[in-house]
Amino acid sequence: KLPDENLSHYDFIISTVPIHRNLSIPYINISPIITSDDIDSINNFLNYQYHQNILKTSFLPQLYRDHVSARSKNEVIKAFYQLLKNQFSQIKESLKMHMTNSEYHQMTIYPHQIALIKLNKPINNNDILSVIILNKSIMWNKKEVRIVILFSCVDPHHFIYNTLSDTLKSLTAHQEDILEIMNHPSYPQFMNTIFKHQKLMNL
Length: 203
Known about the structure:
Number of strands: 7
Helix content: 40-55%
Mean pLDDT: 90
Low-confidence stretches: none
Largest sheet: 5 strands, mixed
């Protein structure tokens, strides 16, 4: 039946018989009667997939905007609020204050005008990474900023944050990639660049 299946509907295959063909998705071969080694293999694979896809599932095109004409950090905060409000109707006005008041967030400004704002308390139970790319840089905490990422994730072990932070550190070592994002902004371009540097970080 496998040749008749549309594999794009699946993430991976677990099979009790060998598969002697090239597939477009990964597969795991296990024993007909599952063993502890089989369970370990499946868990290792799932952990690997989770690590590889964590940023992919946290960024969303609905929470990305480019060509934003904000002229101050307050206008950027308003733009984030509206972006999130359109997606999550229960978002409260207090989000603006939490993004303004440093008691409610941590902010890291990387080289080449990239800023990451990490909310101390997530907006909701969703893992949210929202992005705004400005037409022109603005001053924020006495530094120029043009790409702003808002981090609101349920991340008790800081895995998502550390993955993103390390990815951004890799990205800022390649100014040509940042200029490509700024000069030709689009969601696919941004995500392709993020994935590229997440992979470089893991090498």
